[in-house]
């Protein structure tokens, strides 16, 4: 499995302080309130879920970014309660928490960016968050320990922190740092649009205007967070926020190749960590779809496979049952000629031109897909469209996690 | 749960004989080859899966119906092997079995309708089916015992036979009988089109021309088999066949109210039996979607809910977590105003205008959805479109059944 790297102090972009405290939202009493404070309001870009039901913090966060012209001084994130389907009262509580956060940490209320994750339809106890603000303030810091606490407090059913970092040096010897942190293990099929219960926060010390930042984020998200699925359930709270403090002094525009590459690397690394830590996941699968009539058609095929309970349970059982994959391709809605479809598990050809490959070796295929990470490559034989997509198996443990209900 | 009624002899439409034998396709040695022989070639209508990958028997069956002008003398069904993704060889084997069946039971080869269900991608041992034809012939009969053996032999992961019957008496005292039989427990989300691994066979003794029969079948299937989902996987082999022997002497056209009603009742009863016997199913849920801008939009919402692993696992855990339902509505692709959505579990109002209902009683809701069958009603508050849809929970047992693979 992909491990969570530790981010050493020297890789953290300057201009940001982090912390997390226990506000009493999670019944377990674990840290559940995570805060980032920028030294000076940072340039900001965000993307949110395309679900038509969206949580109160998304309404408020969108409004704040618009009012502030893309500036964020404080990020407040609570876990344990999604503040979704909570009506006008949910929006009012969110606004109040933002107002009190700006009073505590400085800046304007519209420079506070809120996020929530957890159960839907239960009123958020904003007073608990507000009461925890002074302790959070006394505890802010720039160390990897502080960053790790932030990364830990935003988790829900996740089993581990998800962080990623990249940096590069410019021609004149200046450093640009990018660090990302995210959470998410269930209700994961982010379909983020520019205006996304996965939460991801990426920080950089580059100098970037909000418009360029939004363009860079959109491009990175499309090939990373928008290319993963655990269960096909698109959340009401998904959010990706990218903040640029400018404290590093290097100016970056939307076409900056090294920055784009580093940002894409961080976003993809985080996205894959989410899949690897998905609820009950025992196998991570990279789907590589080729030969589609367009990239969009390739993506449709990838999603049909990634959302097929029969394909996903076969993977859980390390069963090289490629017929289920072929069936999912068949109902994906894409125009295909079954007689031109070929399937490989890694380097093992399984299906050729719609039928069992002459070289199909069931035992070898079984051994290959017994690995915790493997690749399924499909050639539709119809054109030049392609995509990469990351997904996982469906295990009895996923069902146990999501069916557990005690009265 | 819905029980499998026993069909007494006097409810079986005249003009048909039934049997089933063990041909050795199922590794268990259980009966796996089921045959119907009409006294005279019956008027026939069929619908097949919309999956673009289709099994050899669908290719051959479609061709035979076209050549014969909608006449079927013999139906041959094997379980244990889907004869899908088997290429030209699969089609050739299927043709050979049909040719030998017509030689055995009479009629033309084009009057033989073949079906297969079971694993995809493995060559069908047609010689075993052919070798079993003489025994099958010696064993044909018109009793409910013969019919039950047919119903039993077509099963795969099903745990019980699925049969249904309706009859009515015309104004001048004549009887019309309709009896149906089907199988299917996994890879169930039939999307049948007139030209579906669910197999269903419906027989009547009415006199009906093939064109009228096709119209009647299309109408009945749209509100029954096309309104169920176990796992969202649309099979490569789904087929519904309706045969009219004419032996009862009552002439029926496409607008005959009593026949339409009786046919719809049989089709709906069979469809619901499939859901109730779905792999690992512990709860059957009737979704009633109302207030959509169109019936098609209502259906989209029903399918998003029926295919959400999070909603289905909550049902498995009898968890009245309506937030997951609201999230699924939100990503269904339908234009909704979340603030107008209301949800009931039976008579219990759970969500009103997008938020928790003031009368929400979690314990009562939990008790209600602890029943083996329950209803979820959703009002989108947007128009007059509606639909009914039947689905089920997702249990660890479903995963166990489909992830079991022994090398």
Which structural class should the secondary elements of chain A be placed in? alpha+beta
Oligomer: homodimer
Number of domains of chain A: 2
Give average pLDDT of chain A, whole number.
Answer: 91
Q: Which fold name corresponds to the CATH topology of the largest domain in chain A?
A: L-amino peptidase D-ALA esterase/amidase
Which chain pair has the greatest contact?
A: A-B, 70 and 71 residues
Q: Quickly give the CATH architecture of the largest domain in chain A.
A: 4-Layer Sandwich
N-to-C series of helices and strands of chain A: EEHEHEHHEEEEHEHEHHHEEEHEEH
The CA-CA distance between the termini of chain A, in Å, is 35 Å
Tell me the number of strands of chain A: 15
- Which word captures the global form of chain A? globular
Q: Specify Rg of chain A, calculated over alpha carbons.
A: 22 Å
The main pleated sheet of chain A reads as: 9 strands, mixed
Percent range of helical residues of chain A: 25-40%
Please provide a written account of the structure.
- The structure is a homodimer of 407-residue chains.
- The longest helix of chain A is centred in the middle third of the chain and has 20 residues, at 257-276.
- In chain A, helix 5 (210-222) links the parallel strand 8 and strand 9.
- The two termini of chain A are 35 Å apart.
- In chain A, 62% of the residues are buried.
- In chain A, 32% of the residues lie in helices and 27% in strands.
- In chain A, strands 1, 2, 3, 4, 5, 6, 7, 8 and 9 form a 9-stranded mixed sheet that branches. Chain A has a 6-stranded mixed sheet with strand order 13-12-11-14-10-15.
- The first copy, chain A, is built from 11 helices and 15 strands.
- The radius of gyration of chain A is 22 Å and the shape is globular.
- Chain A has 2 domains: 9-276, L-amino peptidase D-ALA esterase/amidase; 284-403, Ubiquitin-like (UB roll) (Roll).
- By secondary structure, the first copy, chain A, is of the alpha+beta class.
- Chains A and B meet through helix 8, helix 9, strand 13, helix 10 and helix 11 of A and helix 9, helix 10, strand 13, helix 11 and helix 12 of B.
């Amino acid at each position: 499995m992909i491990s969570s790297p530790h981010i050493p102090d020297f890789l953290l972009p300057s201009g940001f302080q982090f912390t997390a405290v226990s506000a009493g939202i999670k019944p377990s009493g674990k840290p559940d309130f995570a805060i980032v404070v920028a030294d000076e309001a940072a340039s900001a870009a965000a993307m949110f879920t395309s679900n038509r039901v969206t949580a109160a913090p998304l309404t408020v966060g969108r409004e704040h970014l618009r009012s502030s012209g893309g500036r964020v001084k404080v990020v407040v994130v609570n876990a344990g309660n999604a503040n979704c389907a909570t009506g006008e009262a949910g929006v009012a509580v969110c606004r109040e928490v933002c107002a009190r956060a700006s009073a505590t940490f400085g800046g304007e209320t519209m420079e506070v960016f809120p996020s929530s994750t957890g159960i839907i339809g239960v009123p958020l106890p904003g007073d608990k968050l507000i009461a925890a603000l002074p302790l959070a303030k006394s505890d802010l810091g720039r160390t990897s320990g502080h960053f790790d606490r932030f990364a830990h407090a935003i988790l829900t059913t996740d089993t581990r922190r998800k962080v990623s970092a990249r940096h590069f040096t410019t021609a004149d010897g200046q450093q640009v740092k990018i660090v990302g942190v995210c959470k998410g293990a269930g209700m994961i099929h982010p379909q983020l649009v520019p205006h996304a219960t996965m939460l991801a926060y990426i920080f950089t010390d580059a100098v970037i205007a909000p418009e360029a930042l939004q363009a860079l984020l959109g491009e990175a998200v499309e090939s990373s967070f928008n290319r993963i699925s655990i269960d096909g359930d698109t959340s009401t709270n998904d959010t990706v926020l990218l903040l640029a403090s400018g404290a590093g002094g290097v100016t970056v525009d939307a076409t900056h190749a090294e920055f784009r590459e580093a940002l894409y690397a961080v976003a993809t690394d985080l996205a894959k960590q989410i899949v690897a830590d998905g609820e009950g996941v025992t196998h991570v699968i990279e789907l590589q779809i080729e030969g589609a009539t367009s990239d969009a058609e390739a993506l449709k095929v990838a999603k049909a496979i990634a959302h097929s309970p029969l394909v996903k349970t076969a993977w859980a059982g390390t069963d090289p049952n490629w017929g289920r994959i072929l069936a999912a391709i068949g109902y994906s809605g894409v125009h295909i000629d079954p007689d031109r479809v070929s399937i490989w598990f890694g380097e093992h050809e399984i299906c050729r031109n719609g039928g069992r490959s002459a070289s199909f070796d069931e035992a070898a295929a079984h051994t290959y897909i017994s690995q915790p990470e493997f690749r399924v490559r499909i050639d539709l034989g119809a054109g030049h469209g392609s995509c990469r997509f990351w997904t996982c198996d469906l295990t009895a443990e996923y069902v146990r996690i999501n069916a557990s209900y005690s009265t």
